[in-house]
Amino acid sequence: ARSSSSVRIARSRVSGSSDPNPSSTNRVSRRIPPAREVTTSPAPAPAAGRPVVTAGGLTFELVRVQRLDKDLVQVDLVAVNPGNAPVELGSVVSSPAGGLDQSAFTHSSGDVRSFVLHDERGAPQCSSLGPVPPGGRSPLFVRFAALSDGEYQGTIEVPGLPPMAGVAVPAAAGPRYSL
Known about the structure:
By secondary structure, this protein is mainly beta. It has one helix at about 90, and strands at about 5-15, 25-30, 50-55, 60-70, 70-80, 85-90, 105, 110-115, 130, 135-145, 150-155, 165-170.
């Protein structure tokens, strides 16, 4: 069952800066599914052609992109540690501005960007970061506001990682509208 909550949606026009534009942040009422618990259990391997990047001794694979509703997109990644020692995700996924909660999804046109959603308490709608054990896999998720009803492509930008370009977002089910 879904619970009603308030979600902060941040969208900004891209003008050469990777920083969110605070004046573009709105508060809207939206129903979102509760965040799921993240564990270090095995995650499915990515489909062929899905972006894979490496950073800090870890490999990050795009597992799937799904519409949770017409306005909400969830991106699922998995961090894989091929090494012999644990790696702390927070030391890899980080920037001076923050961690996974500072991720963004930029439309392939480059004209609009969506930032991580926050619930009514201000908590980001993304995974918590912990250690990835040697030879282990740690699933991650990030939720963004949809940039369009139709199918579109873009780039996922996660602090500390190379951008993942060419990421397809499926079309929303149901009636169409334009932003």
